[in-house]
Amino acid sequence: MRRGVIISILFVLACLKLSAQYDTSLIAWWHFDDGTAKDHSGNGYDGLLVNNPKLIPGVDDKGFAFEFKGSGVNTDEGSHIILPMIDFKKYNEFTITLWVKYYGLTHNGGEAFIWFGDHDRGWLGLINHVRYPYYDGILYLQFAVGAKLDYSISPINILFDSKFVNEWVHYAMVYKNGTLKAYINGKKIDSISQSVNVVGSNAGLARHWWGNGGGTSTRFNGAIDDVKIYKRALNYDEIVEKCDETAFEFKKFDSNSNIILNGNSSIIDSTIVLTDSQKWKNGSSWYKFKVPVKKGFQTEFSFRLSNGEDKYVYEKYPGADGICFVIQNHSSKALGSVGGGIGFKNIPNSFVVEFDTYKNTDDNSENYNDPNENHIGIFCKGIYPNNCDHNDKSCLATLDSIIPIIPDGRVYYAKIEYNPKKELLVYFDTLIISNQSPILFLKDIDISSMLNLELGEYSWVGFTSSTGNAHEKHEILNWNFCPNPSDVILSTEDNEINSEELLVIPNPISNFATFKFNNSDNELIELKIFNMLGCEIKTLRERNNIIIWNCSDSNGIKVLNGLYFFTIKIGNHIKSGKIIVE
Fold first, then answer.
1. CA-CA-CA-CA dihedral for 411, 279, 308, 358, to nearest 10
2. Residue 156: strand pairing partners
3. Closest CA to 321 of 368, 266, 256
4. Cα torsion at 306, 307, 313, 317 (round to 10°)?
5. Is the Cβ–Cβ distance between 303 and 323 less than 8 Å?
6. How far is CA 437 from CA 19, 152, 491, in A?
7. How far apart are CA 370 and CA 313, in angstroms?
8. What are phi and psi of 28, to 5 degrees?
């Protein structure tokens, strides 16, 4: 049995386990994408839908969420979800995260988003409620793991901001070592020392209880999505999905899409056509600017294959050869071999995820030891020209049991994640990727050590494809790329300017960037701009609340488009960041 086949069997077994429960740190997970309140952590904390919450598109229109319609002042007639009680006292640390889209309330007293316990005697959760004892209609977001209504044990109180109305907002509660921290949209809001004290057995979404469970209300109008409870304290980078400033998204493509096209690739009818259905063609397309990959990323794209032909009829589904997602730091004009090379073979300094639609073996002129005509392969040969042979050391993994990739015009969706733990996850389906499990999961993948990246971090990303005697049309329909945030200069928390005090507008910029901040002491402020090579290109100093950077030299020539870094120094405080010039 060939090595590639052995690897693929191992990954199939691993994926069967992952599909049952991928994240073992979850206590409960209600994502609602199946139209129920089932707990998808595998721990059996299934919820109960009450009074017909409405299923609507979820966050970013992916998957589904439940929309709730509130009732009168103190009734349970509004739509809500009953949850089983969870014994939080047995966990030394835990995290609760959820997305909420708030429309309003049927009564200005307030309502819970997620709730465990009794308001009078001890509760845990998040509620949008008036402050006791005022009941003046002024709403506060209140986070607690053991507060009481009479404030003998106080929650975290955050004045509810009207900008949260009709918008999806991410909330997180992180508890560890007797301290509760509250986050909104990934930003830490406040913290409080508090012990877990949950009284009673009542729990739910869009409902809360008080008075020994005798009083209740369902006043919430809005939607809730993707509720997760972890038995560990998430760190800051895990709390909400965030992207580096270099992130991009193409819902469709045109001549202004900052895409570099090579070989036979072109943009036609809002799609990237890597190759048409003709013999011995190849094409590549790269995002124009290098992006950071060292600290991880998530990328999603959809593609379509059509007009498959194979006069030798080697394959069940005629057509060849597939598409590849490629990270490479060789050239913006990089283009690999035709045929079974799928447009990436011989590209040096590259890392490839291939979606292969043709079996190149001893039976034809090209032998790359492909397991079948529908498989995924991961290839990297370091800084040397890459290879697509599944028996070559460049092959890191093969998965030969995937859904058929058929050139009949249907749309396929793929997502690739690379995280700071050096793990690579590949998702693939005929449905938009939402809460599916990865079909391929690799550990100990260190792209920054495998490749020679610019500044140890940056590379081009894009796609390749090719045809041989068999051929098909290869199209990329849309694409987004989200690098994990990273800073060129690391500052300690104590030494960093508060992000609230610094505003850079616009970003991206065309001609001028304005840096605004609080400088009440009129200290000297130093702004430095660096290019991607780390070379300082501009220094400005002001005793003011504003510094303006004109991104032109003394002759009025604008600096090249692309990514730049900046540092702001006020006294001993430093803030670093990134800005894009277009």
1. -80
2. 143
3. 368
4. 20
5. yes
6. 5, 45, 36
7. 17
8. -155, 150
In contact, 411 and 271? CB cutoff 8 Å: no
Residue 3 has a pLDDT of 29
Integer Cα distance of 246 and 571 in angstroms: 29
Mean pLDDT of 46-73: 92
200-243 tens-digit pLDDT? 999 999 999 999 889 999 999 999 999 999 999 998 767 765 67
Distance CA 60, CA 184 (A): 17
Least confident of 244-248, 254-258, 285-289, 423-427: 244-248
Residue 38 has what pLDDT? Answer: 96
Please compute Rg for the chain using Cα positions. Answer: 27
Work out the mean pLDDT of the chain and round it to a whole number.
86
Closest CA to 11 of 330, 320, 424, 355: 424
φ/ψ bin of 186: left (φ > 0), alpha (ψ from -120 to 50), beta (otherwise): left
Neighbouring C-beta atoms of residue 49, cutoff 10 Å: 17
Of 33-37, 39-43, 509-513, which gets the smallest average pLDDT? 509-513
SS3 assignment, position 315: coil
Contacts of 537-541 spanning 24+ positions with Cβ under 8 A: 537/564
